[in-house]
Amino acid sequence: MKKSKNSVQGLIGLERFTRFGVKTDKAELAFFSVEPTNISVLSATNIDVKIHHLMMLLSTIPDLEILALDSCECFDSNKNHLRKRLEKEQNEAVRKLLQADYDFLDEIQVEMSTARQFMFAVRFRRE
């Protein structure tokens, strides 16, 4: 059954999901998630070498698109929500659970403050 052009899938040309991404009416996009080494512990020379090697590798791949993501922004809104709930909550048992959730988010936010994720999208055009 063909998707209607009035649907979201029809408007963006989405045909189907594939093993590594999506297939549209114009191309197939494959996505690859990469979590880099923690470079904050490396010397400046080693960082320069890693950046140079990555640049050389990526320059050989045509139609490569890169998305850099930082998941830290979600922590702030979740912590704000929990803080507001704590201010309004009357039940002491629920307050303890909310505080435990808030403390947990605070703890893992510190651990993930330097965590970065990159998504590489490769566009395979129909030929």
Count of individual domains? 1
Secondary-structure content class? alpha+beta
Helix content: 40-55%
- The termini sit apart by 24 Å
Beta-sheet strand percentage? 15-25%
Which value, in Å, is the CA radius of gyration? 22 Å
Oligomeric category: single chain
Sequence of strands across the biggest β-sheet: 1-2-3-5-4
N to C succession of SSEs: HEEEHEHHE
Number of strands: 5
Sketch the major β-sheet.
Answer: 5 strands, antiparallel
SS element count, helices: 4
Using the alpha-carbon principal axes, give the shape: flat
Account of the 3D structure:
This protein has 127 residues and is α+β, with helices and mostly antiparallel strands. The chain has one domain. It contains 4 helices and 5 strands; from the N terminus they run H-E-E-E-H-E-H-H-E. A 5-stranded antiparallel β-sheet has the order 1-2-3-5-4. Strand 1 and strand 2 form a beta hairpin. Helix 3 runs antiparallel to helix 4. The longest helix is centred in the C-terminal third of the chain and has 21 residues, at 92-112. The mean pLDDT is 79.
List the helices and strands and how they pair.
Layout: H1 8-12, E1 14-17, E2 21-24, E3 27-34, H2 44-59, E4 64-69, H3 72-88, H4 92-112, E5 117-125
Antiparallel strand pairs: 1-2, 2-3, 3-5, 4-5
Helix pairs in contact: 3-4
Concise structural overview:
The protein has helices at 8-12, 44-59, 72-88, 92-112, and strands at 14-17, 21-24, 27-34, 64-69, 117-125. The chain contains four helices and five strands; from the N terminus they run H-E-E-E-H-E-H-H-E. Helices cover 46% and strands 24% of the residues.
